[in-house]
């Protein structure tokens, strides 16, 4: 069973973060009352003429450059015909043989190994509308129709569900960093089709199936694992596979057959006569290249070299551009080690974002505040538990506009490093916890951390824990 090899390719659709749609001035805002973000052009009414949004072309070039692609200086749009109610024109304006970008790659990391995945092409096209299935029938909402998309087609270079996950995660990061898409998978802004076949070493490629419109990283991984297993099982049992389009049901964890394909490609295309060919000058490409931000890989390298951060820390910090930017701003103003700023981001800030269901872009304070907090902590002016409290307060609206220093003063959170005061608290804790003291004296040296914990509690998190630890040891005569 294990001698089968999987061959996997991905087609990723990313909705572009342009203000207006691809051929008209309608807004691309998510949601809205049904069929209110529409006009004769994006409804495909007879006689309405499209006008290509230049920003769509720019974003496609930008994504292509970030993915190491070559850019076609002459590109064209084509009509891809298929009949479905979510497509009012009965064809989708897309690109066939002259895509804007081609021949790129993306390096991914799986189990500590770097693997290069080829990018065959990136082309622009329009999104379809949305079908809404109700009790009384099905309605169509064209608000999303004709929003600009890029389709990123990979080479079949992937060979495991883990690689599919890593590819999607890395690609999502690159698209977020370049700002071409908001990549909100829950709103359908990023979705992928996964092609899977299996074969034995030395034998020709197997029959391919395609899973459409998967909209989360974990679903892409689970669907791929399921499909590889299913294909193996069919072949092991002596059955044969057929080319099919499948739909992944994430709740049930299984694939359904949507339709069986008789030919590899059942669409027919012809050149779009209503839109001029796209001519892209080398100067334009270079101007767009100059706007590319530092990408995650380069940032990780810099964090390791410049600040001595570990691989793990550098990876976590760059998952989101917003958090990575926050880190860069904080480090620029922080007098202490960069690691102190990193710890706040990876610890308290990430925890609070999760608890409050906020996006990384929504951290309610900036690098200056974070640097101030890291300085207070590394100078020993506040304890680590007080620092956590300050971060919590910075997330609350009633502390808006106040910096960490002001909060520490106002809330009286400064760390107590007054030896006499802490010593008195230590003695009280020793008197109140004879059992723990006995354990400690009996040789259970780790029991002291329970006593330090009691001192921290008694001081409402303000005692200097290192000092408390030292004083307790002294008082207990060790
Ligand atoms: Zn429109």
Question: How would you describe this structure to a colleague?
Answer:
The protein is of the alpha+beta class. It folds into three domains: 4-285, no CATH class; 296-410, no CATH class; 419-475, Arc Repressor Mutant, subunit A (Orthogonal Bundle), CATH 1.10.10. It has 15 helices and 16 strands. The protein has helices at residues 54-66, 161-178, 217-236, 282-289, 296-307, 311-318, 321-333, 338-355, 367-378, 384-394, 404-410, 419-432, 434-441, 448-458, 465-475, and strands at 4-15, 70-71, 74-75, 78-81, 91-94, 101-110, 113-126, 130-133, 138-141, 148-154, 190-200, 209-214, 244-249, 254-260, 268-271, 278-279. A nine-stranded mixed sheet has the order 2-6-7-10-1-11-12-13-14. A hairpin with a 2-residue loop joins strand 6 (101-110) and strand 7 (113-126). Helix 7 (321-333) packs antiparallel against helix 8 and helix 7 packs across helix 9 (367-378). The longest helix has 20 residues, at 217-236. The radius of gyration is 29 Å and the shape is elongated. Bound molecules: zinc ion. The site of zinc ion has 7 residues, from loops.
